[in-house]
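Encode chain A's predicted structure.
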Amino acid sequence: MAGSANSNPLRFGIITDIHFSAESETAAAEATAAELRACMECWKGHNVDFLLQLGDLIKGSDAFKHEELRQVQSIFKPFTATIRHVIGNHCLALPRRELMEALALDSTFYSFTMQGFRFIVLDGMDVSVLRTPETEEDRQHLARFHAHPELHDYCGAVGTRQKAWLQEELEVAEHSGEQAIIICHFPLLPETTDQNHGLLWNHREIAELLASSPAVKVCLSGHYHYGGYALWSGIHFVVLPAFVNRNAHTRFACGTVELTSERMVIQNRLDETLYNLPLRH
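Encoded structure for chain A:
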């Protein structure tokens, strides 16, 4: 990895939009499994502290969704580092509670801290066509979708209670002197996606909330299969390319992130640097 001012950087593996399919022909399924194992070897070689899986772990086909989850989990089973899962829209082909149990999640939005960083994981399907809204504000988000179907029924919003929790997490990070890394399956800026893929329904509101906190340094997302980047209000919004489309963008199937108080460096499994991002102070 690239050099940095910190002699003991935090390293983690990263992958998004695997869309593991059990419908594939045997040869295709074996090739996918082999590439996932190659990613694991890359992460082991870099001695990562954990793996961040950014959502859409499975394709979510009606007939094979349970088998898809079983097979992809069996591939990752030998990986000894902690896997931090993010909920994607395809994942929710499975019932939410069943998915949470399989991925060992107590909540679909959560945080964890390592080496002075607070990682804040959001659930972008908190408000969606798959759930009954919990509050009047959430009902308005859902009604707005029904009035504007171009927002896509496979996207969603951060709900009222989760938004209040996010505000509290940002305040904790500020008071603790932690640097916050935001994780969301969906992109939060229109310039980092396209109309076909879409983005978080209440993306502007959440992006503005993040921008209001000096603790926030980077937002990592998936969903838009070809990847994107924007610097907005001093925050790096990085959308990583999808594993499932790895043949269309050969530079990235998975990667490794090196993080210090000064910068974030994202490299592919060939150790080529995709992003070298100074963190705002």
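The chain is about 25% helix and 20% strand.
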